[in-house]
Amino acid sequence: MATWVWVVIAIAIIAAVAVIAAAIATRRRVERNQRARLRQQFGPEYDRLAEQGGDGQATAELAEREKLRERLDIVPLSAGDRDGYRKSWRDVQEQFVDEPSTALHRADRLVGGVMRKRGYPLDDFERRAADISVDHPQVVENYRAAHGISLADADNSATTEDLRQAMVHYRALFDELLETRETAGRSA
């Protein structure tokens, strides 16, 4: 074979390797950017998932949550609905003084009612928490903690202080669900 053929083959191989290397570098950069975006957006939720299964699994899980969330029709509450839910929350808080366990379970149902009204599906708890994490990543940990205390209360292993803390956690999520970016943007 002629020398020039070997030169053309070598150039073609070098070009192919360069294209593959560029593609790999681009893919890694895109993955790093996505990972950084998700880490910033989800904060503690990203860290929790990364601790369980590594950055790659956290990135994949949160990207999937975003895709699922895009399919949901989450709507802002009307002013009347928000006022009604706020009144219901005040009633639950008042009940806590005399019946903390009952009030906690009412708070859980009230949060679920707000979620349903907004358009979140109310499948199992983990699905609800995952759906909430996309729009409210800073308070999903509150939801998880409140739910855990609620389960402990069902087993009679939660103290009154635990129940109080669960109410604080539910309140943080409740406030987020009532005053979302959509409703805040409309009133501006």
Describe the structure.
The protein is mainly α and 188 residues long. It has 2 domains: 3-70; 79-187, no CATH class. The chain has 8 helices and no strands. Helix 2 (44-70) packs across helix 5 (125-135), helix 3 (79-98) packs antiparallel against helix 4 (100-118) and helix 5 (125-135) packs antiparallel against helix 6. The chain is elongated, with a radius of gyration of 24 Å. The chain starts with a helix and ends with a helix.
Provide key terms for this protein.
188 residues; mainly alpha; 2 domains
Residue runs with pLDDT of under 50 for 5 or more positions: 180-188
Given helix and strand content, the structural type is: mainly alpha
Oligomeric state as shown: single chain
> Helical segment tally?
8
Fraction of residues in helices? over 70%
Radius of gyration: 24 Å
The N- to C-terminal Cα distance equals 76 Å
Number of domains: 2
Tell me the fraction of residues in β-strands, as a range. Answer: under 5%
The major beta sheet can be summarized as: none
Number of strands: 0
Approximate shape: elongated
Order of helices and strands: HHHHHHHH
**Overall mean pLDDT:** 89
Task: Summarize it.
The chain has 188 residues and is mainly α.
